[in-house]
Design brief:
The complex is a heterodimer of chains A (166) and B (112). By secondary structure, chain A is an alpha+beta fold. Chain A is 22% helix and 40% strand. Chain A has helices spanning 28-36, 38-41, 136-149, 154-163, and strands at residues 7-12, 17-24, 51-57, 64-70, 76-87, 91-98, 112-121, 124-132. Chain A has an 8-stranded antiparallel β-sheet. The longest helix of chain A has 14 residues, at 136-149. Chain A is globular. By secondary structure, chain B is an alpha+beta fold. Chain B has helices spanning 2-14, 17-26, 33-37, 44-57, 75-111; strands at 31-32, 60-65, 68-73. A 3-stranded antiparallel β-sheet of chain B has the order 1-3-2. The longest helix of chain B is centred in the last third of the chain and has 37 residues, at 75-111. The radius of gyration of chain B is 22 Å and the shape is rod-shaped. Classes of the chains: A alpha+beta (166), B alpha+beta (112). The A-B interface holds A 2, 5, 7, 9, 11, 13-14, 18, 20, 22, 24-26, 30-31, 34, 40, 43-48, 136-137, 139-140, 143-144, 146-148, 152, 154-155, 157-159, 161-166 and B 2-4, 6-8, 11-12, 14-15, 17, 20, 58, 76-77, 79-81, 83-85, 87-104, 106-107.
C-alpha cells in the first residue's frame, strides 16, 4: 500500500530549494494534527533510528517548537523552529534552525524557510514542503555542517566517500 | 578539513548557470575548450575563467594535446554533492514512513 503513495523529492540548485511532495492515506485534519501537535510530532518526526523529544511548543504565529532528535546512543541534536504564518488546515511557514538545549540559535549556521502546504487528493492528503535556503552558499554551509557534526550516522558514509576523492 | 573545502568549491562552481551548462555538456563526453565555449558567445578569456573555477573545484580535468586543450568530467566529485541530497531524501522517506504508521495507529484509536 505504501508503495502506491506518491513521493517526489526535487532539488533546484539554482534557487537553493528542496521540494518534497508526499501523499498520505488519511484525511487532511489528522495529517495536519500530526504536523502541528507536539505529542504527535514526537511520534514520527525524527527519521529512523532517531527519536524526537519536545522541550516546548507553542503553535501560533510567532511561536516556536524546541525539540531534540536523539540517537540510540543518547546523543542529542537540538533544533528550534519559529512559526511565521499559520492557515489551518491549508498551510504554514516556519524558520528552521539549529539551537542548543536552551533554545538559543546557533548564529553561525543559516536557517532555512519551510512552506508546508496540505491539499486533498480524493480521500487522501497531499503534503508539499518547500525548503528554501537564502543562497547556494547557505546551502553549502549546511552541507558542510552536516558532514562535520554527522547529524545522522548515514552522513558518515559521505565523509568516507570524500576521503577517497582527494 | 580539505574534504569539506572541496565540497564547498563544488557548490560554488555549480552556482553559476554557464558552469552548469559546461558540466551538462561534458556529461555526454569530453570536449575541447573551443567546442565548449561556442554556445555561450563569451570572449575566450572570460570563458577560461569559468573553466578555471570548474577545474579548481575538481569537477573537471583538462589536458593539452598539441594545440588543443580537452576537458572531461570528474564524476566522483559531482557524486559527492549528489550524495548529500540522497541522504536528505532518505531522511524524509524514513520520517514519512513513520507518519504513515502513526496515521494508521490513530485510525485504530478512533475506532476503539
Amino acid at each position: 500500500m505504501k508503495a502506491e503513495l506518491r513521493f517526489d523529492f526535487l532539488v533546484d540548485e539554482e534557487k537553493s530549494t528542496l521540494t518534497i511532495t508526499r501523499e498520505f492515506a488519511a484525511k487532511r485534519q489528522p495529517v495536519w494534527d500530526c504536523h502541528t501537535k507536539s505529542e504527535l510530532l514526537d511520534r514520527w518526526f525524527a527519521p529512523k533510528p532517531l527519536a524526537t523529544k519536545t522541550k516546548s511548543m507553542d503553535f501560533r504565529e510567532g511561536g516556536h517548537w524546541h525539540y531534540a532528535m536523539i540517537e540510540p546512543n543518547g546523543q542529542e541534536y537540538w533544533s528550534r523552529i519559529d512559526y511565521q504564518t499559520i492557515h489551518p488546515i491549508d498551510n504554514y511557514t516556519l524558520l528552521d534552525g539549529f539551537s542548543d538545549d536552551t533554545g538559543a540559535l546557533n548564529p553561525d549556521l543559516p536557517r532555512s524557510r519551510w512552506k508546508v502546504t496540505f491539499s486533498d487528493l480524493k480521500a487522501h492528503t497531499l503534503v508539499e514542503t518547500i525548503v528554501s535556503y537564502k543562497s547556494p552558499e547557505a546551502l553549502q554551509q549546511v552541507i558542510k555542517m552536516g558532514m562535520k557534526e554527522g547529524l545522522t550516522s548515514t552522513l558518515e558514509r559521505l565523509d568516507e566517500l570524500l576521503l577517497t576523492l582527494n | 578539513m580539505e574534504n569539506y573545502q572541496s565540497l564547498n568549491s563544488v557548490f560554488h562552481a555549480l552556482a553559476d548557470p554557464t558552469r552548469r551548462s559546461v558540466i551538462a555538456r561534458l556529461g555526454s563526453g569530453s570536449a575541447s575548450i573551443k567546442e565548449l565555449a561556442e554556445p555561450f558567445g563569451l570572449g575566450l578569456p572570460s570563458f577560461l575563467k569559468h573553466i578555471k573555477v570548474l577545474e579548481s573545484s575538481g569537477l573537471i580535468a583538462s589536458e593539452k594535446v598539441g594545440r588543443v586543450r580537452t576537458c572531461k568530467l570528474r564524476r566522483a566529485n559531482l557524486i559527492a554533492a549528489q550524495k548529500w541530497f540522497d541522504e536528505q531524501r532518505a531522511a524524509w522517506e524514513s520520517r514519512y514512513d513513520n507518519l504513515d504508521n502513526l496515521l494508521t495507529s490513530l485510525k485504530g484509536e478512533d475506532e476503539s
